[in-house]
Structures are given as structure tokens and as C-alpha cells.
Design brief:
By secondary structure, the protein is α/β, with parallel strands linked by helices. It folds into four domains: about 1-140, no CATH class; about 200-430, Glycosidases (TIM Barrel, Alpha-Beta Barrel); about 595-725, Rossmann fold (3-Layer(aba) Sandwich); about 730-805, Sandwich (Immunoglobulin-like), CATH 2.60.40.1180. It has 23 helices and 25 strands. The strands form six sheets. Strands 5, 6, 7, 8 and 9 form a five-stranded parallel β-sheet that branches. Helix 1 crosses helix 2 (about 25-40), helix 3 (about 40-65) packs antiparallel against helix 4 and helix 3 runs parallel beside helix 6. The radius of gyration is 28 Å and the shape is globular. The two termini are about 55 Å apart. Pfam families: Glyco_hydro_42. This is Alpha-amylase family protein.
Length: about 800
């Protein structure tokens, strides 16, 4: 350690002509260190000099009882990325190959590989400069930060709707798929900086080892593979974590016994979920692993029942190249026949009329899968799409029931892709609402775009108005929190930093801070980011070395341009999580508020129409910047939740609804609710047949809109109806645009003050004027710095504020 610090000191003396004490080291050692320092690049010398400065300031801060947890992380990442930069510089061929696997970077791979080391060093210098500046402000008494509330990686517990550490809410963070081959006890990988959740999902694409629970655990003779079980049972019972049921592969012995077992497979589900032998094997696996891990800390964050499940059964869809749903098994077809018999209550004539067919019995029903998208909006499309959702829900119900038969307290969630809700396509077999209701936690892998989409032909229209794609985060979280408000929300593969569709080698730290803050404010309780792929020596992890040939080509190109090359990004993730955990009680307080205005969501219309989510998002976006939490209702929410938790429901662009959905809306009116209804909604049933009934106001209030009403008018009417539930704190915004980009949330505190969170997701700095609806003057304190503020202030693009507002 002395050798390292002396080397840093010599680096400092080279940069700033300051003295180094040599009394504690022999002259030969000093000479050796000087020689070592002279071989460092100028940027590394500068970075190490700044490390010395910061560490000296940290010593001063500790002497004054100032918390330096944030700076400890900054130092750690700086040292790591200095090491990484040196590895990248010494191994240009490996880095060039990494850039070459991502088609966006491939044309410039040689130049990128050559410039990456100094880019990383420069970014280390940038974050050190910022760290020195902020700690300097605190040492001078210009700001006062709240000490970090660290995650207790051994003792954190899952409560009903949040994780709790040392008596306070906590938001655990980590990285998905951490450095396969490294032991879980390696503190270079599992620590407060990168996160320290133990989990069994590291080995994504090879399917037979590394703690992911998979089909190969059971051998043909019915016994368990003890070596694979050992991967699971050898996980230390120290840190909290979660486990994966990795359902991608299927053993050859099953395929020999069941030749149809791969019919109806999908990208990440390698077998037919309706196959009885596959179910038998998986039932055995789930029960065994559930017994072995009962009460273990590695399951505190639950079991992930599937990785990004979907069963797109649409002809010529992008998943076809992965052989997804290119045919279906006899088991799936027979289950569909039984489903139709029940759906039509045995009325075969009605089925034939709907489908324009002449089947002699339900047992003779056939359907072409993949189904032609030209059939969308027709009864056959609805019936198959609805069945495809129901059968996947049945599969996950089976999995959860098997687990709970041996471990009734086990938590479960599913890594649902947001596109299954946010996109217009509904041929994928995922009912987002049903699965959020089913599992004990809400699971997903929500993403955002911090810059333009890197794929040709993909839209980045949101960039015309906003700094990042906040809506993909916000609308999805608001829906999931509306469906399951009392469940933990776990993003087990956060794609906020990069994905197959976007990445930026110079990602803004302001974006990182804003998107993680927004997601947590709107419901995210824990996240594991995509992805950490550096071994401690700086090299890419084992899977990303050598020739890369993965079933899913996305992984090969994932390293290039990721946070693994960006010290400013990786450091900022931990810094924002530190700050969120420092204010965890305030974040929960802001989050757990009534959602006075609800938008009606119908899976029936979503299945039958082309642009349901696009239109729904337009209305959601228009209402998002008004200072109150948004929400949704569905048939199930109306029937299962307290309707008094909201004031008004807007039914917009919902032409097709089932009779049960229509009845739920009428029951809401019967209880005294308020509905704003557009002229096109509720006219048809799921088969496109005209509905004779119309909603009646009953004990409630029914506002029927004119046919030509636009979103601006709907917004005006909706805000009028919820005027009594609008926040006491108001924010006027001038961002030099004709639209708003600043969103805020506020909640009154027991002492009469108001807690206020503000985020600007626009491109421009916003001039803001904060006031109370009663006109009283206010005293404002920035809780992040403990400094007072005027009621008129500016907030830069992607800026985040957490304020205390006290009426005078």
C-alpha cells in the first residue's frame, strides 16, 4: 500500500512540483517507483495526481466526521478504469474485435480501439475533478450532504412492497451477468461499488452450468446431476440475491422421447411449454431447487421464472429467424381446441360464424401458425392471441405452484420485456397485467434510450422534444404500479445504460442520474444493470474472449460502447443509487401517493388494433407534466382494488372491449365514479361485433365527449375533474418550447412542509417558478446540498432536484 501511495505521490510531484516524503522508504524503492512513474502516460500521471489530492481531502473530511462513502467509490472506479485503460492499450486486437462485433462501431473499430484507453483515462480525470470540487464544497461548508445509507448485502429483507435495510427502505443495485467464472466471494466483483447481490443467472447462453437452474439438472434415469446441483448449493449463504430458472435448453433424451418438444419453442424458451414430459421434468427441478434453497439468502430477491419470455406467433416476425413459434405441437393445438370450447360455451356454430369455417367439432379445429398479421382485427386473430396469452400465464402458474408446493414463502417474478406492453404488437403471448398479478414481485427489464437508436430504420422521434426516452420508463412503471401497487418492483436486467438498440460511448452522467432517479421514483425497488463484463485484471470476461458465436448475436456486440468502457457512467450509477438510498424514505413517501386520474387499458383493444399503445402514449404524455402521479385501470383493477383511490377514469381509444370489461366500467359508475368517455370507445366486443348497451351514469358522472375532440381538450376536461386532487405546490415552466419537459411530484409532510421532486427531461434549461396554490410565500431548501433556494430558479437539462418547501 505504501508503494502505491508513494507512486501516486511521485506522479503528483511530476504534475504539480510538490514534494514527496522519502523518509519511510529505502532509496532503491523510491528510485524504482520513480522509474515506474516515468513510464506512465501523461493522462495516467494526471489521474493519479488527482487521486492523491482527493484522498488527502478524504482524510481531512474523515477528521471532520464527514461521510466519504461517495468518494471511496469514486476512488475505486478511478483505479479500476486506470487499470482497464492499460489493459485495453496493451491488447488492441481484443478491443478492436469487441468493436467489430457491434455493427454500429465495426467500420471504425481500429480507430476506436486505439483511442479507447485515453478516452477512459480522460473520463477518469473528469470524474475526479468533479469529486474534488464537490468534496471541496463540503469541506468549505458551502454544502452539506446527507451520509449514504448503504445496502446491507447480508441482512436486507424483502417486505411487502419494498426492501428494508437497517430499518429503512433500501434500493439494492448490481449488474446482471457479472464476469462468469469469478467466485461470488471475489470482492473485486462483489462490493459496495459494483453491488454485491448473489444470483444464478450469470451464464446466459451456454445452458449447462454456472448457477443458472436449467433443464439439464435431471438425467434420463430421473436422478439429478449432482455436479450441476453443486453449482447451486455451493453459493455462499452470506449475501442476499436471486436465482434464475433458465428454460432455454432441453436435453437430447427428452427430445428422443418427445419428438415434438421443440415445436412452439421461442428465443429464450427452448421447448414446448405444453409438453407433458417437459412439465414433468421442470416440476421436478423446481421442487428440488425450491427445497434446497429454502430460507437461503440468495433467494431473498426471489426466483426469476423466465428470462424475457415471449412466443411471437406472427408470420414473418423478427423472432422467426430464431425458430420461434414457426409451428405448434399437437399438445398446444389440443389445448387451444379445449380453450375454444370453453370460450364459446360449446357453441360450435358461433365459432364457425366468427371464423368463417365449417368445422364439424371443436376436436377438428385447425389453425395456421404462425398466423398471418393480415388477420388482425378478425375473430380468429383475437382467439389465438388471447389463447396464446392464457397458455403462457398457465405455464407460469404451473411453475409458481410447483415452487410454492415445497417453499410457500418463495418470492417470484418474471423478466418481462417492456415492449410486451409498450409496443403495439400483441402476438407475443404475454399478458403483462396477468403476470404482474400472478407473481409475488413485479419483474421486468425496463429500458430507456439515452441517445438515438443505432439501428437503421428505427425511430428516435422522441429526441425532437426530450433529452432521453423517459416515456418508455414512466408509462411502463406507472402501469405496473397500478396493477400491483403493493408488490416489490425488480428490474433484473436494466437496459438504461445500453441495449441492442442504443448505446453512446460518451454517455452523459446527467442522463444516468435522471433515468435511474425517475425509475426509482416511479416504482423500481431493485435493479441489476446490463452488464458487467470485466474481469479484475481488466480483460473481458471468459464468454467475451476468443471467437464469439452465440445463439443470440446481441451478446457478442454488447461489450462495445457499454459501461464497461465508460468510467463516468459506471461511477454515476453507484453515485445516484447512493443518493437515492440516502433519501430512501423520502422517495417512498413521494412514490406512495394516490393516482387521482386513471387511463383505462383494454387488452382486448390492444389485440385487435394496430396503434393502441401509440395513441394511448400520446394522451399519457400530455398529462405527465402536471405534478401528480399517473395511473391506469383495467377490468381487474376496478374489480379488485379500492375504487376510492382515484377520482376519474378516462376511456380513450378503446373501441373493442369484452362484455366483462364493459360491465366493470358500468359497476364503477354504479358506485359513484366519474368516467370521461370518447365517442369511439366501447362500441364493439372482442370480435368486432356492435355492442347494443351504452354506459349509464347511474350514481356516478359520465362525460361523453364529442367525436371531434382532441387530446388537448381531453386533457383540459380531465384536469378539471381532478382539480381537487391537484398538488398544493405548483410549478410554472419556461423552457423556450411550446411543450412542457419538467415533471414534479410533491407530498405534504407532518410538519406542514412539502417534499418536492423535480426532473427536467427536456433538451433546454428550464426556468421554473415554484409557488403554493394558496399564495403563501415559501422557504425552499435543496435537500441534496442543504442550501436555501429562491422560488424562481433554473434547472438544466436532465437536472434532478429534491426540495423541502416550507410555507412562511
Amino acid at each position: 500500500m505504501k508503494h502505491h501511495l508513494l507512486g501516486a505521490c511521485i506522479a503528483s510531484s511530476l504534475m504539480f512540483n510538490v514534494g514527496c516524503s522519502q523518509s519511510s522508504e529505502p532509496q532503491s524503492a523510491i528510485t524504482a517507483v520513480k522509474a515506474e512513474a516515468s513510464t506512465l502516460s501523461p493522462l495516467e500521471q494526471e489521474a493519479r495526481a488527482k487521486l492523491v489530492t482527493l484522498e488527502s481531502m478524504m482524510d481531512e473530511a474523515r477528521a471532520k466526521n464527514i461521510d466519504v462513502t461517495r468518494e471511496e467509490t469514486l476512488v475505486w472506479f478511478s483505479e479500476q478504469f486506470i487499470k482497464f485503460a492499460n489493459w485495453d492499450e496493451a491488447n488492441p486486437e481484443a478491443i478492436e474485435a469487441a468493436f467489430g462485433y457491434e455493427r454500429y462501431y465495426a467500420p471504425n473499430k481500429t480507430e476506436l480501439a486505439a483511442t479507447l484507453p485515453d478516452f477512459e483515462r480522460t473520463k477518469v480525470i473528469d470524474i475526479l475533478d468533479k469529486g474534488i470540487d464537490v468534496l471541496g464544497q463540503e469541506l468549505r461548508g458551502e454544502i452539506k450532504r446527507r451520509p449514504v445509507n448503504k445496502v446491507d448485502w447480508q441482512g436486507t429483507k424483502a417486505a411487502d412492497n419494498m426492501f428494508v435495510s437497517n430499518g429503512k427502505p433500501i434500493f439494492p443495485y448490481d449488474y446482471f451477468s457479472k464476469t462468469v467464472g469469478q467466485p461470488l466471494t471475489n470482492t473485486d466483483i462483489y462490493n459496495d461499488h459494483l453491488g454485491a447481490l448473489y444470483h444464478g443467472g450469470e451464464n446466459l447462453y451456454p445452458v449447462d452450468h454456472d448457477r443458472a437452474i436449467n433443464s439439464f439438472l435431471v438425467k434420463e434415469d430421473g436422478t439429478f446431476d449432482q455436479d450441476l446441483l453443486k453449482e447451486l448449493t455451493d453459493i455462499p449463504d452470506t449475501n442476499i440475491g436471486f436465482l434464475y430458472y433458465w428454460i432455454m435448453g432441453i436435453p437430447e433424451w427428452i427430445e428422443k422421447q418427445e419428438p415434438e418438444v421443440r415445436k412452439g419453442r421461442s428465443l429464450f424458451t427452448g421447448f414446448d411449454i405444453d409438453n407433458p414430459l417437459a412439465r414433468e421434468v421442470w416440476g421436478k427441478i423446481i421442487r428440488k431447487t425450491g427445497e434446497l434453497t429454502k430460507g437461503k439468502k440468495v433467494t431473498e430477491l426471489g426466483f426469476v421464472l423466465a428470462n424475457e419470455p415471449h412466443w411471437f406467433a406472427e408470420k414473418d416476425f423478427w423472432t422467426a429467424r430464431f425458430h420461434e413459434m414457426t409451428s405448434i405441437s399437437s399438445y398446444t393445438l389440443n389445448k387451444f381446441r379445449n380453450w375454444l370450447n370453453k370460450k364459446y360455451a360449446g357453441d360450435l356454430a358461433q365459432l364457425n360464424a366468427n371464423w368463417n369455417t365449417h368445422f364439424a367439432s371443436f376436436d377438428e379445429v385447425t389453425i395456421e401458425i404462425p398466423i398471418d398479421p393480415a388477420l388482425k382485427g378478425q375473430p380468429i386473430w383475437y382467439d389465438w392471441s388471447r389463447y396464446n396469452m392464457d397458455r403462457s400465464t398457465d405455464w407460469f402458474s404451473f411453475m409458481q405452484n410447483e415452487l410454492h408446493s415445497v417453499n410457500p414463502d418463495a418470492d417470484t417474478h418474471i423478466k418481462i420485456m417492456p415492449r410486451m406492453f409498450m409496443d403495439n404488437v400483441r402476438s407475443g403471448g404475454i399478458d403483462t397485467e396477468a403476470l404482474a398479478e400472478l407473481t409475488t414481485m413485479v419483474g421486468h427489464d425496463a429500458k430507456s434510450f439515452g441517445s438515438k437508436n443505432i439501428r437503421p430504420g428505427k425511430s428516435s422521434k422522441w429526441m425532437e422534444k426530450y433529452a432521453y426516452y423517459w416515456g418508455y420508463v414512466a408509462m411502463f412503471h406507472d402501469f405496473m404500479e397500478s396493477v400491483a401497487p403493493d408488490k416489490i418492483n425488480f428490474n433484473s436486467e436494466s437496459h438504461f445504460l445500453s441495449s441492442g438498440q442504443w448505446r453512446d460511448l460518451d454517455t452523459r452522467t446527467s442522463y444516468v442520474r435522471s433515468v435511474y432517479w425517475l425509475a426509482t421514483l416511479l416504482g423500481m425497488d431493485a435493479n441489476t444493470g446490463w452488464f458487467w463484463a470485466r474481469d479484475p485484471d481488466g480483460s473481458p470476461e471468459d464468454r467475451l474472449e476468443g471467437e464469439l458465436d452465440f445463439f443470440d448475436p446481441g451478446l457478442a456486440g454488447a461489450y462495445a460502447g457499454s459501461n464497461n468502457m465508460q468510467p463516468q457512467v459506471t461511477n454515476e450509477v453507484t453515485q445516484v443509487m447512493f443518493d437515492l438510498n440516502s433519501f430512501s424514505e423520502e422517495i417512498i413517501d413521494l412514490r406512495e401517493q394516490p393516482r387521482p386520474l386513471r387511463l383505462f387499458y383494454s387488452e382486448t383493444t390492444a389485440i385487435n388494433t394496430d396503434n393502441y399503445m401509440t395513441k394511448g402514449y400520446d394522451l399519457y404524455e400530455s398529462l405527465f407534466f402536471e405534478g401528480f402521479p399517473m395511473g391506469f385501470v383495467t377490468k381487474n383493477i376496478i374489480e379488485k382494488q379500492d375504487n376510492a383511490q382515484w377520482d376519474t377514469v378516462v376511456v380513450y381509444n378503446n373501441p373493442n372491449v369484452s362484455d366483462a370489461e364493459f360491465a366493470a366500467l358500468q359497476s364503477y359508475l354504479d358506485q359513484g365514479g366519474t368516467i370521461i368517455l370518447d365517442a369511439k370507445s366501447l362500441k364493439l366486443n372482442e370480435y368486432g361485433q356492435a355492442r347494443k348497451q351504452t354506459l349509464k351514469a347511474s350514481k356516478g358522472k359520465l362525460i361523453a365527449l364529442d367525436p371531434n375532440v382532441d387530446i388537448a381538450k381531453i386533457k383540459q376536461i380531465a384536469l378539471t375533474e381532478v382539480a381537487d386532487s391537484m398538488p398544493d405546490v405548483m410549478l410554472k415552466e419556461d423552457n423556450s418550447e411550446a411543450f412542457k419537459t419538467t415533471t414534479w411530484r410533491t407530498v405534504k409532510q407532518p410538519d406542514g412542509s412539502y417534499l418536492v421532486n423535480i426532473l427536467n427531461v427536456g433538451h433546454n434549461t428550464a426556468k421554473l417558478d415554484l409557488s403554493l396554490t394558496n399564495g403563501r410565500p415559501v422557504a425552499i431548501t435543496n435537500l441534496m446540498t442543504s442550501n436555501s433556494m429562491d422560488s424562481q430558479f433554473e434547472l438544466q437539462s436532465e437536472g434532478v432536484l429534491l426540495l423541502s418547501v416550507m410555507p412562511r
